[in-house]
Amino acid sequence: MAGIYFHIPFCKQACHYCDFHFSTSLKYRDEMLRAMEQEVALQSHYLTDSRIESIYFGGGTPSLLEADELSRLVDTVAHYFDVQPDAEITIEANPDDLSGQKVAAMRHTAINRFSIGIQSFFEEDLRWMNRAHNAIEAAEAIQRVQDSGYQNITADLIYGYPLLTDQKWQQNIDQLLDFGIPHVSAYGMTIEPQTALAAFIRKGKQSPMDENQSAAQFEQLMERLAAAGYEQYEISNFARRGHYARHNSNYWKGVPYLGIGPSAHSFDGHSRQWNVRNNARYIQAVQRGVIPYEREELTELDRLNEYIMTSLRTVWGMDLAYVERQFDTAYSEKLRLGLQPFVSEGAVSLVGQIATLTHRGKLLADRIASELFFDE
After folding, report:
1. pLDDT tens digits for range 240-283
2. What is the mean pLDDT of residues 79-83?
3. Taking 90 as the threshold, does the pLDDT of residue 83 lie above it?
4. At 217, is the secondary structure helix, strand, or coil?
5. Could you say which DSSP state residue 319 is in?
6. Does residue 255 sit in helix, strand or coil?
7. How many CA atoms lie within 13 A of 138 on its CB side?
8. Are 276 and 285 in contact (CB under 8 A)?
9. How crowded is the C-beta side of 72, counted as CA atoms within 13 Å?
10. Are 32 and 279 in contact (CB under 8 A)?
11. pLDDT at site 211
12. Is the pLDDT of residue 60 over 80?
């Protein structure tokens, strides 16, 4: 079953590493919400299956919205789609937004999962990232959400940046474990071209990221969370049994989804489309009854290469029998041959028709996938 993603394009301030689309001005907030409701109506026939098993509020900073505003968007989806009774409904939240009043109000909405952007429990790291919250708020937000009765919680951490020693990284991981967070998402710091961090590096104000440090801290993460009973079901995502993120899992499994809002992406199984990255242009177009998007029709090889890339990142792995059924026997045979060097070096495990990355292979995931890609 499909999912729906809302891109809420507002933030209090710009994190130095972030290149997602957002505005620090809330000037068009009301118009934006009305436009999103209208886009849901305009896109009500985009998905061939109207059953919805996940709704995800991302951004930007969705936790800037009030509870009643979030409920409006969920109700709009329920009006046009068949939202399942057990649907996973997630909100990304910054710790500084999660006051007692805000969390209490969320209990009266359909939100049943929180994704909290912790990133670090160290004050100097948060300042370096230009995060809007502080270390005390990071811990208090988790506690407050848990005390309110929410059990389906994920928290984000970032590793591989200059201030983060291995000891501090261990403390960040351990603090999440002490809270009993059932799902952890952790990402290596990357340098996106149009960010403040990239500018600091170009001007010599900041040293580049160290790939060796990032790899070592990724290994540290994998070992610590495995020892604590978490399954690494996707390269960057770890969960206790029963706490996989349904919405994100469907991305990796190639399930169709509809994206609502400026810069939001959609996928129908055969094409991808993405809305304009401009709040005013998005609102103006939707008010005219037009969705301002670009579309890319996916060739057979596009879809195959995407399957290679996403499936290898997961615990479910790449299924050569699926490749044979959906594409062609020749592709399946070529992939089996292409996998052999990685199997020999211990980076890939091939059991029957299923290829999965080993511990070593997860450090080389992008290279392995790129070497298996097919050219047009």
Report:
1. 999 999 999 999 999 999 999 999 999 999 999 999 999 999 99
2. 97
3. yes
4. helix
5. E
6. coil
7. 21
8. yes
9. 13
10. yes
11. 95
12. yes
Residue range 209-237: mean pLDDT, rounded: 97
Among candidate residues 145, 139, 58, 59, the one with its CA nearest the CA of residue 98: 145
Give Cα separations from 159 to 94, 185, 192, 197, 340 (angstroms): 18, 11, 15, 15, 32
Q: For residue 229, give the amino acid letter.
A: G
Do 292 and 280 meet the contact criterion of CB atoms below 8 Å apart? no
Q: Identify the bridge partners of residue 186 per DSSP, sorted by sequence position.
A: 157
Tokens 């540290």, located at residue: 220
Please report, for the chain, how many H helices and E strands are present, in that order. Answer: 15, 15
- Categorize the per-residue pLDDT at 376 as very low, low, confident or very high, splitting at 50, 70 and 90: confident
Token reading at 168: 């501090």
pLDDT at 27 over 90: no
Residues 6+ apart with CB under 8 A from 154: 113, 114, 115, 116, 181, 182, 183, 184, 185, 239, 243, 245
346 DSSP β-pair partners = none
Where on the phi/psi map is residue 169: left (φ > 0), alpha (ψ -120 to 50), or beta?
alpha
Coil, strand or helix at 102: helix
What string of DSSP letters covers 115-182?
A: EEEEE-S-HHHHHHHT-SS-HHHHHHHHHHHHHTT---EEEEEEE-STT--HHHHHHHHHHHHHHT-S
What's this model's pTM, rounded to 2 decimal places?
A: 0.96
